[in-house]
Amino acid sequence: MPIAEMKKFKLSAFFNAIIHNKDNLFYKSLLTLLLFVVVLFVILGQYVFRKTVTIPKINSVLTKDIEADREVRYLDKDETKRNEEVIRLSTPAIFIHNEEISANMIQVVRTVLVLISQIEKYQDFTLQIKDKNVELSEQQFQILKQIISNDPGFIDQYLTFLFSVYRRGTIKLAENIVSQIELSGIIIGRYQHDKLIETRYSPDEIYDMEVTKEGNKLLVFDQFSQLNKLEKEVLLNFYNKTVITNIIYDEELSEMRLNNKLKNQYVYRKILKGEIVAERGERVTPENIDQIVAVLTSKTNKLEKSSFLAYLMILLILFILAYLFLKLNDKNYFVDLKNLIFLIIIVLMYSLNISMPIYLGLEKTNYFYGFMIILPAITLTFIFLYTKAIAAMITAVFSIAFFVVSDFNHIAFLYILLSSLSVFFTITEVKRRIDLLLAGLLMIAINLILAVFLVQITDFITQVHLYYFFIFAALNGFFSAILSIGVIALGEIILNSPSIFRLQELSDASAPVLKELFDTAVGTYNHSILVANLAEAAAIEIGADGVLARVGGYYHDIGKMDNPEYFIENQGEFNIHNQLKPSISVTIIKNHVKKGVERAKKERLPQKIIDIIAQHHGNSLIKFFYAEALKSNDANKQEIQKDLYHYKGENPQFPESAIVLLADQVEAASRTLKKPTMSNVDKLIEAIFSERFQEGSLDDSGLTLKDLTKIRKIFVKLLLGMYHSRIEYPQAEKK
């Protein structure tokens, strides 16, 4: 072998050893670390490659014109501050009417008044109320006792009065919200059946509820006008000590309401491309500093240490989240290095996608930024090559990454997130690559609807022409569909996965392996077609992947092509095994599984198909040759090792593989029936299923007893259709 070819062979063997080694933790860790560094560099490269400028100080003289080289949007701080002040003053504070605390106080007052009426000695009274937080002098005690004794209905009158005060509400106003109340009043919330009912009150109504000395005096003196002056003063003192506020300021709810109003009250100004905001020789003033900073900031991207650490931590968190979610949805995802390699390619591609517009000068806050991110194509790719759960996780993590990189551009973030999630509803039945383009048309329609929605929640119309918004939305959907075709094809090459497109290609009768199977072992070919039909119908019946089961059925016996004459379906009247020892025959029979796996790997069939080939006999016993060995004359039965007559394969590890195993055995066994009827077909299938179940061949397949019942019924139906009896046509009488 030439030296160049030897080097090439060694290099190829080296990479194959890395990729197929399931314990290559070192290479996986190294690749992940390199990916992290590269992604960080790609995202933060904008701060390295874009020019920085110095912001001038107030009162300094400009040495050059300050001209906007692109449209710039900046915050008018003064106008925003004025807006905020108006909103703060006009937004009512929120109080909660808590009737529970007032009810407790009424109960305390009732107890105190009853004790006053019942206890003669002041000292005994003080001992009884020491835990009530109500202090009365002996004189006050005696006067209240006299009032109660003079009017037996006084206690009820006072409690009714107190109840009415609390029912209306009692409040104490802090000085910092008095000015706000004068403009907006307040909102008082009352809970009714666990639902908060809010009512707005005017300043006059609020002041009537306020607990003040003068207000309390008017209330008490007016309500108890029948008492003399001294009795009124004592009762007022008692009222002041026992009245509490039951309308409480809810600071958290008030601040939340206020902040929600303040969110969208920022006043932005626009500086057009080419506009000069300050000329050379002009002095920087508080009036023009905001415009100057806005224009200069649009040209700079200085990376602060804190920003770098923030990006580093967020990126690290996203990597960890992606790892955990992938492990949660597929515990074996990182076992195969090919999955990691494909994920690295996707992450690098996406990193470049979200960074390139910034390199080209696009502002992160620009609403068009989201239209340049083709995340739906990645979502579509992961749906086809993996599962919808993994695709949803990738979409969420990638959307968050964009949100951070775009400096929290919420409009662009909403667009790419909703557009990507819509993919789950646009993809239904896709059997050809052209169907992806049809799905792209539906994505365009959804993107246009999203565009209408986003326009409604922004002031976008005032910044760019509305038609461009819709054009870019449509282009994003179209290019997402186009790009997904290429990325899925790349994934099929790297992952060798059983995508619908790859399976459709393999199921074509003109596929090279199937054509060779037909030419070399037509009996096996016909058997495989029948097994495929049975497997597909059964898989569809239980909600498994019918196409995968069908293709697995087509290819499960390709290992028989090397020695087709040793298998009964390819034999005529002569059986070559009659001339061989059972031990030799069984070795040849078992070997077709190994040869099938080798051939499948050589043809780069998807791993799931290879697994079906390897598992389609499990480790079951080859009964015929084992029985032949037991009854052979020259064999000592005790010397025969039963293990030699077992297949060495792994039991089925997923439903489609188990279905092919069952279909293979059922189809082969059904050929022994001389006259198939509903009864004997059902008994035959039930016996096979029972035997496989009892020996544990189906334990790891994920099939349930309910699934097996459905599979058995569909097998009976199909086999009766295959072997139905025909009318015997009479032969013409010979003259």
Write the layout of secondary structure elements.
Elements: H1 3-20, H2 25-49, E1 66-67, E2 72-75, H3 77-90, E3 93-97, H4 99-118, H5 122-128, H6 138-150, H7 154-168, H8 178-184, E4 186-192, E5 195-201, H9 203-209, H10 213-223, H11 229-242, E6 247-249, H12 251-263, E7 268-271, E8 276-278, H13 289-297, H14 305-329, H15 337-359, H16 375-385, H17 388-405, H18 410-421, H19 423-426, H20 434-456, H21 466-495, H22 500-506, H23 512-520, H24 522-542, H25 546-555, H26 582-602, H27 607-615, H28 623-631, H29 655-670, H30 678-694, H31 705-722
Parallel strand pairs: 3-4
Antiparallel strand pairs: 1-8, 2-7, 3-6, 4-5
Helix pairs in contact: 2-15, 4-7, 6-11, 10-11, 14-17, 16-17, 16-18, 16-21, 17-18, 18-20, 20-21, 23-24, 24-25, 24-29, 24-31, 25-27, 25-29, 26-27, 26-28, 27-29, 29-30, 30-31
Name the descriptors.
62% helix, mainly alpha, 4 domains, 31 helices, four-stranded mixed beta sheet, 735 residues, 8 strands, elongated, two-stranded antiparallel ribbon, disordered N terminus
